[in-house]
Amino acid sequence: MTVRFVLGLQWGDEGKGKVTDYLSDWAEVVVRTQGGANAGHTVIIEDKKYVLHLLPSGIIRPNVKCLITHGVVVDPKQLIDEIEEMRGHGVEISDRNLFLSERAHVVMPYHKLLDGAREEMDSKKGSQIGTTKRGIGPCYADKAQRIGIRVGDLYQENLRQKLEPLVAEKSAMLRYFGIGEEISVDRICDDIAEQREVIRPFVCDTYSMIREAVDSGKKILVEGAQGSLLDIDFGTYPYVTSSNCSSGGLITGSGIAPTELSSVTGVVKAYTTRVGSGPFPSEMDQATGERVRNVGKEFGATTGRPRRCGWLDVVALRYTINLSGVTDIALMKLDVLSGLETIRIAVGYKLGGKSIQTPPACTKDFEKLEVEYLDLPGWTENISGARTMNDLPENARRYVETISDLAGIPFTSVSVGPGRAQTIRLED
Ligand code: GDP
Ligand code: IMO
Ligand code: MG
C-alpha cells in the first residue's frame, strides 16, 4: 500500500487528526489538499495537545515530509503563527519537512472581513451558515472567479498592481455590507512583504514532489479536512464549506490519479456532530445532546463553538462511503457513549412516505424527512482502557458489529480515547 486517503465521513471533527497522527507512523509524506484554517485537527500525545489548522498532522513526527498543496487556501499570518506555536512545543519545522505550493491561493484580510460581514448580514435574517469566519468562502470564490492571489504571486513585482483594483472592489462590497473598516493596499503590501520572507523557504512546486513520491513508491497519506457532508457539491448545500471534502477533492487537490490510490480510510465518530447551521436529521434531544457534548468535549477546535450532537446516521454514512470509495473505517469516540441506556442508530429516511437512500438535495425537504431508528442497549463500563475487542462489554461490541454490518465495510480501528495508545487496532 502506498497512497492512502484519510477523510471525514460526517460533518467534520470526526477525529481525523488522531487517525492521521497514528498513521504518520507508517507514512513518509503527509499532504493537506483542500480547505484552509477552518480545519482544526487535534492530536494528543501524552499530556500535550496540538491543534493543527493548516499544517498537516504529520508535522509532529520527525522525518515525515508535510505538503500543503495548490488546493488549500492559505492565510500566511495563520501559517506563520502555527509554525511558531508548533516550534514552541518543540516540533522542528524547516524547509526539510514543510513544503507549500506556489499555486495555493492566499486568504487575504478582505476575505476574512467579507466572510464575517456576510454572516453578520445573514444572521439578521436567520440564514447564516455559521462559518468559521476564516475567509474560506470568499477566497475560493476569487479562485473560481480567476481573480485570486496565489502564493507565487506574492513574490512578483506586479503584486501591488493586481491588488489595487481588487481592494477597490472588495471595499465597495464591504460598504454594501455596512462595514466601515477601511482596507488599505499599503497595509496589505507591508504585511505581505514581511510574511513572504518568513514562508519563502517552504514555497515550491508540491505537485512535482508528489509525482516523484508516487513514482518512487513512497508511502503517502493524504489528510482530508472537514467532512463529506460539508462537501460543496455533495453536502447539505448551502450549509457546507467551499471545497470538495470527499475523495474527488483529495484527488484534484493532490494531483494523484484515482488509479494510483491504494485505500481510502473513512473517519467516523460513533455518533454525529455538526457545528454551525443546517439540516441534521439524527440530532439528539436537548438533554442527551448536552450530555454527549460534555462527555465528548464537543466544542470546536477552531472556534470553540458548542457542536450540535446527534446519533450515528448510517443512511448518510452509506452515501458518503460510496461517494469516496471508502475501503475501511476508523471508528472514533466510542468511549463517549458509555453510560447511555439506549443507543440509537438512524437506519432509514422516508420522504413523502417513500424510502430514500441519499440525503435530499433541498434544505426544505429535510424538514419533512422521517428518520427511522434502530435502538440498541447501551453499556455502563468505562471502556477507555480497552485495547482489543474482547476488552469491550458485550453491548459495546454489538454496537460496533451492528454499524459495521450496516455500513457494509470493515472497521480497521476503534478509538476509545483521545490519546495515541487509546486505540483498538483491527487491521494486519
Ligand atoms: P478532526 O477535525 O476530525 O481532526 O477532529 P477534532 O480534532 O476537531 O475533534 C475530535 C476531538 O475528539 C479532539 O478533541 C480529539 O482529541 C478527540 N478524540 C479523538 N478520538 C477520540 C476518542 O476516541 N475518544 C475521545 N473521548 N476523544 C477523542
Ligand atoms: P475539520 O477539518 C467542522 C463548517 C463550519 C460551517 C461550514 C462553513 O476540523 O473537521 P467555512 O468556514 O468552511 O466557510 O464554514 O463548515 N466547518 C467545519 N465543521 N469541522 C471542520 O473542519 C469544519 N470546517 C468548516 O462550521 O458550518
Ligand atoms: Mg476539527
Task: Write a structural description.
This protein is an alpha/beta fold. The chain folds into two domains: 3-96 and 205-425, Adenylosuccinate Synthetase, subunit A, domain 3 (Adenylosuccinate Synthetase, Chain A, domain 3); 105-200, Orthogonal Bundle (Adenylosuccinate Synthetase, subunit A, domain 2), CATH 1.10.300. It is 32% helix and 21% strand. The chain contains twelve helices and 20 strands. The chain has helices at residues 16-23, 76-88, 109-125, 136-145, 159-176, 185-199, 206-215, 247-254, 286-295, 314-324, 363-367, 394-407; strands spanning 3-8, 29-32, 41-45, 48-52, 65-68, 73-74, 98-101, 105-106, 203-204, 220-227, 263-269, 272-274, 308-310, 312-313, 328-332, 342-351, 354-356, 370-377, 411-415, 423-425. The chain has a ten-stranded mixed beta sheet with strand order 9-7-5-2-10-1-11-15-19-20, sandwiched between helices. Strands 14, 16, 17 and 18 form a four-stranded mixed beta sheet that branches. Strands 3-4 form a two-stranded antiparallel sheet. α2 (76-88) packs across α6 and α3 packs parallel to α5 (159-176). 46% of the residues are buried. The mean pLDDT is 96. Magnesium ion is lined by residues 12-13, 39-41, 301.
